[in-house]
Design brief:
The chain has 318 residues and is of the alpha+beta class. Helix content is 38%, strand content 19%.
Length: 318
């Protein structure tokens, strides 16, 4: 920040301050051999590259990767920021951030899908569901895996960022089915359906590392077994504020798959919408892959799955 009665040099422009995730740092030296700490400060909008003069500004200890930090300074004409303050963010500063604002866009392989996620979640009217998603998705140990992981290794959406794309597809398609079949369903239940679809595979974040590579849990455990564990902190919050919504989510995640993951039959339509949207998203991706490098009609196979496209004499423009 510019101090009172002190003018910023001509090569500097406006002041700034904000709270971000720390996603990178390295020491560099200028031409005068002055040491600077080069920082990457990230949020859902993008990155800010900031320089901290180590000879003039104290660097707090125990600030680690993905920690919340508050920084202030001035923006140079080069586009970088010259800091005069850098510290751990306070609890109040973190709580003042919008839902998912702290997710680092830099870790999203598909920025357009990431932007859709943030925009949709921030549009939710339920304060409690937004707080629930903050407690589930903005955890340091979940962020990178959720953004980078594939939805599967060799099956559908088997690429970096596939889990996020598949999860968002399921959430949006499940809500579309709900609105088509039950247009009078309350807004809170529609938003609950979206959240249930978005997190139906959240247990997979336990089976991939931060770069989206399978880990030991991928071989040793079913991702379904991790779903409630991944959401435990958020569900404990909902138990205090929206108990029936918390139970709805638990029910959907433990019965939505064909065969019922835990042996419990579906007791509400939302669980069926999630199940059907999950299957359709997976089949759509597989069918597109099956014909990506072959003729656009006839039979094709991926693993044990056979797909067929009819040959059409002509195509009709919508």
């Amino acid at each position: 920040m510019k101090r009172p009665n002190q003018q910023a040099p001509a090569h500097l422009s406006r002041t700034f301050t904000g709270t971000y995730r720390l996603t990178g740092r390295v020491v560099e030296f200028d031409n005068a051999k002055t040491p600077f700490l080069k920082l990457r400060l990230s949020d859902c909008e993008g990155d800010r590259i900031a320089m901290l003069n180590l000879a003039k500004t104290h660097v707090p200890e125990r600030i680690g990767h993905l920690d919340f930090v508050t920084a202030s300074g001035v923006k140079c004409l080069s586009g970088q920021f010259l800091l005069d303050e850098f510290r751990k963010a306070t609890r109040e500063e973190v709580h003042s951030l919008d839902t998912l604002q702290s997710l680092p866009r830099v870790y999203a392989p598909a920025p357009a899908v990431f932007d859709q996620l943030v925009k949709t979640v921030q549009s939710l009217q339920s304060e409690h569901l937004r707080s629930f998603l903050t407690r589930v998705l903005e955890r340091k140990d979940r962020i990178e895996a959720f953004l980078n992981a594939p939805a599967s290794v060799t099956y559908h959406h088997a690429y970096a960022g596939g889990l996020l794309e598949h999860s968002l597809n399921v959430a949006n398609n499940a809500v579309a089915m709900l609105r088509l079949n039950e247009p009078a369903m309350p807004r809170l239940m529609q938003e609950t359906c979206f959240v249930a679809g978005l997190l139906h595979d959240i247990g997979k974040t336990y089976t991939y590392d931060s770069k989206g590579k399978p880990n030991a849990a991928w071989k040793l455990c079913s991702h379904d077994a991790f779903t409630l564990e991944a959401c435990a902190y958020g569900l404990a919050y909902l138990d205090q504020h929206e108990l029936d919504i918390a139970m709805t989510l638990r029910h959907i995640w433990t019965c939505a798959s064909p065969g019922a993951r835990y042996g419990q039959p579906a007791a509400m339509t939302l669980a069926r919408y999630i199940r059907d949207a999950d299957g359709q998203s997976a089949m759509t991706d597989n069918q597109q892959r099956a014909f990506r490098s072959k003729s656009q009609w006839g039979f094709s196979r991926i693993g044990q799955n056979i797909f067929w496209q009819p040959q059409l004499a002509c195509s009709l423009t919508p």
